[in-house]
Design a protein that fits this description.
heterodimer, A: alpha+beta, three-stranded antiparallel β-sheet, 17% strand, B: alpha/beta, 14-stranded mixed β-sheet, 13-stranded mixed β-sheet, 27 strands
Chain lengths: 104, 403
């Protein structure tokens, strides 16, 4: 991965992932790893922090005879996500402007 | 490594966590392995890194969190600062190890070239080398000598104003201790100092090489070492400063006054020695004390454990973040304080000292196991009622066992 991905961006991506549908640790990590070199062990504290912050909630569900921990969106998380999306749009517009040499 | 072995090792590193945190983290990792399945196991382990690395990441996050939230109201814990830099240090370990492997296997020949004898008397010795092993020993004759130095270094071996300086700068400029370490380092530099001759100052700055000191009498010792080990036998120093990054330190039959130690990744082992006024900071390694006398010591430990066997301890202040204390047949004098966060404390054989024991032992999450001899339990009452002595044992969440 050429561009480093900060933990703020990772939080953003996690929220975006579970906004579509509830997801579990392994699935989240596999998606994040498409864009970032990140260890699953680094992801764990981030997920934990997001649960503690109230952006995300968890529940257990049985899957093939064992328990899987699902992460799901909260209202607070949804609010935070829409804020992050706006910020991201602004940020990427500016980036594109600079890269393509347009006036921002 | 199999899934079971990985999880077992991880559990070992994490077992000191509060139960809920432990179970939650283990469930997360177990689930990852389950999802990855047997075919994805290898990739997953590659991605996770070693169990130790994974554990450190979790511990770092939890210790950071706990210092600001759940343990805030806990007075025992209040001024114990988690030092997160330790974890950064740790993540660098493997890189260094892989570089140093090649030179550790070098065998040291006994035919030391370039022996310089009959050096003028010196009282100060300053050594600034990176990759060479050094031994400084007391000689059997009246001779100051040095062997194992290279041809270029010999040119610079002059005693000026009673000071001998050995430095690396003559053979290469702008050195990087890590990479010069890959060059030749086959010979040990041996410096001999006549027996009973005192050195006013010994300063050593090392990169990769090991250091061995034997039979010396020093006023001042200053030592900084990056990767090498540090072995000392039969040495006396009135003042000492040590900064060891990754190497271990072994002390045998030594006597130090006013010493200050920073031991980052390595272990410290002290036997048959006497340490007076010591300030010791341990980060990741363990500390072992055996048959030694420790007087006025301030000891701070982060992750490592502490063992004390047959020691006499007087006025110790010991603070530990995660390590355990295992004290067997320790004779306590004066006031001694132990403040532990996650670690357990075990002390035994205290019955002979009941009438003079002043001990203050507290942990946040660790267990306490303090044993007197059963037949002396009657003395326990006397102990509490003593005028100046005290026994204070406190834990926030751990178990206490008194026998």
């Amino acid at each position: 991965m050429h561009f480093p991905v900060s933990s703020v961006l990772i939080e953003f991506l996690i929220l975006a992932i579970i906004d579509r549908k509830d997801s579990y640790g392994y699935e989240i990590s596999q998606t994040i790893k498409l864009v970032a070199t990140i260890k699953e062990s680094t992801l764990y504290p981030i997920l934990k922090k997001m649960v503690e912050a109230g952006f995300v909630t968890t529940y257990q569900e049985e899957h093939q005879g064992r328990q899987r921990k699902y992460y799901a969106m909260t209202n607070l998380g949804r609010e935070h996500l829409s804020y992050l999306k706006k910020e991201w749009a602004r940020h990427s517009d500016l980036l594109a402007a600079i890269i393509e040499g347009r006036q921002a | 490594m199999t899934k079971e072995a990985y999880l077992q090792e991880l559990a070992n590193y994490l077992k000191k966590l509060p139960k809920a945190d432990f179970e939650d983290s283990m469930a997360y990792f177990t689930e990852l392995f389950d999802e990855a399945g047997p075919e994805g196991q290898e990739d997953l382990i590659k991605s996770l890194g070693s169990p130790q690395e994974a554990a450190m990441e979790i511990l770092e996050a939890i210790i950071e969190n706990s210092s600001t939230s759940s343990l805030e109201g806990d007075k025992v814990n209040r001024d114990v600062q988690p030092s997160s830099h330790v974890f950064e240090v740790l993540s660098g370990i493997e890189k260094f190890v892989s570089i140093s492997v090649g030179t550790q296997e070098d065998d040291h020949s006994n035919n030391l070239p370039h022996l310089l004898t009959n050096l003028p008397t010196f009282h100060t010795l300053e050594i600034d080398l990176c990759d060479r092993d050094i031994e400084i020993l007391s000689s059997t004759d009246e001779n100051y000598s040095i062997s194992g130095v290279s041809q270029e270094m010999i040119k610079d071996c002059h005693v000026v104003d009673g000071c001998l300086k050995l430095s690396h700068s003559s053979s290469s400029s702008g050195f990087n201790p890590l990479f010069t370490g890959l060059s030749n380092s086959s010979d040990i530099i041996v410096i001999r100092i006549p027996k009973d001759q005192n050195l006013k100052q010994l300063r050593i700055k090392q990169g990769m090489g090991d250091i061995k000191l034997c039979g010396l009498d020093l006023d001042k010792l200053h030592l900084e070492s990056h990767l090498g080990d540090f072995n000392v036998y039969n040495l006396k120093a009135k003042q000492a400063y040590f900064n060891l990054d990754r190497g271990d330190a072994n002390l045998d039959s030594c006597s130090f006054e006013n010493s200050q130690w920073q031991v980052k990744c390595g272990d410290l082992s002290v036997s048959r020695s006497c340490l007076i006024q010591t300030q010791l900071n341990m980060s990741l390694g363990d500390a072992h004390f055996a048959d030694s006398q420790l007087i006025d010591m301030v000891l701070e430990s982060n992750l490592g454990d502490l063992d004390m066997m047959n020691c006499q301890v007087q006025g110790i202040r010991f603070r530990a973040q995660k390590g355990d204390l295992n004290g067997s047949s320790v004779l306590f004098k004066g006031d001694n304080h132990f403040r532990f966060n996650l670690g357990d404390i075990f002390l035994d054989n205290l019955e002979q000292q009941l009438d003079q024991l002043s001990l203050d032992v507290r942990t946040s999450l660790g267990d306490l196991d303090i044993r007197f001899a059963p037949r002396e339990i009657g003395n326990f009452q006397r102990l509490i009622l003593g005028s100046e002595d005290f026994l204070h044992i406190e834990t926030s969440q751990g178990d206490i066992s008194l026998e």
